[in-house]
């Protein structure tokens, strides 16, 4: 088919469907989308809560447990042991398909009445308050992660050990407060670094050790704010920076940020990849409009946050990977899956559509909380022949009697679940992290909004009164309820208070790190502000050779364009009004590497 331009029924903006897109939709036998890629991403993210936790009663025992569902949510929740026990069967909640009612209304009813997991985790040990994680050990408040050990307060992380406050990081050890850092040891307060050790406040550094406040360095040692020092000078100056003092840390952070804006920024963080467009992606082939891929993928489009290889998929994430293929418009659906479409939290399954929290299944349509089942529709068991006869009739009915939401958006077969039926209010979902809205904006768009829950913490210590130096912190700090510095006056989902655990205190003392002043939610949002949006702009390289205004060039003669202006263009996640100096790959390599 030829390229087509369509108008998104949500944002009303035009979007393009390419010939190869039509080939994919034909391959998996679905109609083309009626929402644009950005609105499809927002819709999927509204069905995933990674970080916001509540106390809610278990539907199995009545005891109060920790859950990603609000206390007033109609969802029935079970703890992990209860959910995976043999004491109940999700098929008991099955029902006949009703051709007098829309499909999406019926799946919402089934979702509400069928028990689900309070927190989504799999194969984890001694890991409290962790959600959407697989194979974790001794972790606390880690979300969206794979195989982390002895980690705390981290999000979207893979194979890290003994680390705290990480965001989109992989294979690090003894690290703290990093964003987009990999394969590093004792790296602190850093962004977009790889293979760096014993360093602080780095940006875009690779293979560096014993560096401080640097940007754009490769395989360097004993640099301070991009200036070379001897080992003896470096050790002496680092002591003068007082990195164990919270006030000193704030001043150093500001200085490092100023330096970051002076060095050229790579148009995109794309490594070992072929024919790739997006940002922060590794080892991919034929990937377009993709973000935050920690490892390989092939023939994928409009996808984000993947850990583990997958291929031949569109509109996946957050939460994809693990030897999966032929996924479409799915969230939290990438652990050894194939031909899975329009699902959320479906793992180790194939040929599953419009299902929720199903594991180890095949040939499901519109099911909730099933395990190791086949040929089921609305949690009702069918024969293979009966299943294959009924599914086409349901698809036809979805087109004949579509769901129409309160803003007149129409949902037929081929559209993901309507945001109206998400079990989370918009501001509890990761959509609020990446596409934040005010309450008024959300309500205008017809999205649900959850009011802040009363905290009423008995504050015993104000963050302003915490010792500046970690060496001055007493052992009994673990008994204190500390006020968050934001005191709930931010838009970051502030918890208003936090506590320091004994393991956490040990970590800070061992690595000479001052106590935080913000609660975990606010610290997470501070890290989120350091990332670029999952959106691309078409821009030109800002390298202007010898006439450049920043005056930092070292290798102008080696640039293909000499001392004139570079003519290269690219797709980048740096918006045109950003202050960073953005280079094409060729100019960046000459100046930084």
Secondary-structure-derived class:
alpha/beta
Shape: globular
β-strand number: 41
The profile of the biggest β sheet is:
12 strands, mixed
Number of H- or I-type helical stretches: 12
Estimate percent helicity: 10-25%
Q: Ends: how far apart?
A: 43 Å
Determine the strand fraction and express it as a percent band: 25-35%
Mean pLDDT: 94
Would you kindly provide a written description of the structure presented here, covering whatever features stand out?
The protein is α/β, with parallel strands linked by helices and 593 residues long. Among the domains are: 130-266; 461-528, no CATH class; 537-591, no CATH class. Helices cover 19% and strands 28% of the residues. It has 12 helices and 41 strands. The strands form 11 sheets. Strands 20, 21, 22, 23, 24, 25, 26, 27, 29, 31, 32 and 33 form a 12-stranded mixed sheet that branches. Strands 7-8-9-10-11-12-14 form a 7-stranded parallel sheet, covered by helices on one side. The chain has a 5-stranded mixed sheet with strand order 13-15-16-17-18, with helices on one face. Strand 34 (403-404) and strand 35 form a beta hairpin.
Keyphrases for this structure?
single chain, 593 residues, alpha/beta, twelve-stranded mixed β-sheet, 19% helix, globular
In brief:
With 593 residues, the chain is of the alpha/beta class. Helix content is 19%, strand content 28%.
List the helices and strands and how they pair.
Layout: E1 4-7, E2 14-17, H1 19-28, H2 37-45, E3 54-57, E4 64-67, E5 77-78, H3 80-83, H4 103-113, E6 116-117, E7 121-122, E8 131-134, E9 140-146, E10 152-158, E11 164-170, E12 176-182, E13 185-188, E14 191-194, E15 197-200, E16 209-212, E17 221-224, E18 227-228, H5 231-241, H6 246-260, E19 264-266, E20 270-271, E21 274-282, E22 284-293, E23 297-301, E24 304-306, E25 310-316, E26 324-330, E27 338-341, E28 344-347, E29 350-353, E30 356-359, E31 362-365, E32 374-377, E33 380-381, H7 384-400, E34 403-404, E35 410-411, H8 431-434, H9 439-444, E36 461-462, E37 482-483, E38 497-498, H10 502-511, H11 520-528, E39 537-540, E40 569-572, E41 581-583, H12 585-591
Parallel strand pairs: 5-6, 7-8, 8-9, 9-10, 10-11, 11-12, 12-14, 13-15, 15-16, 16-17, 19-41, 20-21, 21-22, 22-23, 22-24, 23-25, 25-26, 26-27, 27-29, 28-30, 29-31, 31-32, 36-37
Antiparallel strand pairs: 1-2, 3-4, 17-18, 32-33, 34-35, 37-38, 39-40
